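note to self: dont lose this again. the chain is below, predicted strucutre after it. 170 aa total, dont forget to put it in the shared folder this time
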Amino acid sequence: MGLTPLGGIPMCARSGDLDPSVVTYIMNQANLNTEEVEKLLNKQSGVFGISGVSADFRDIEGASAEGNERASLALDVYAYRVAQFIASYAVTLQGIDVITFTAGVGENQFHSRKKICDNLKFMGLEIDEEKNKIRGEEILISSPNSKIKVYVIPTDEEMMIAKDTLELIK
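---
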């Protein structure tokens, strides 16, 4: 993310990075004011805006499986943009040792993980398709031949919030 949550990859309902002139173009074409375009970019864009289905990846994956082309496009755009960000970090870090998928999509959507990893095959990344389908446990999903290790690590955000809250009130 950048200054606001709009920066970066397209999220559930947020646009992600875009050409700055898109904002004024949308405002002029749809006759929107600043509040309306801000709502559009924050609440009606991202995979929801592309798919036209939902901001929930489970719904989008279901629609894609039923042949909804916009839902499939939303999943492809998301995976491509995540892979682009990972590749850009590889340049900054001069390589990648490990990729970790966690929370929401990273932990639960094995199709999205596969698409992201498939976009990174050029870096020597390979996943074990069967291990990638396992849910709810910490697991190494990269194949033994992969040059990059790929893990799925479940989160417990509620426990972390409780621990942080307890620490604050002490």
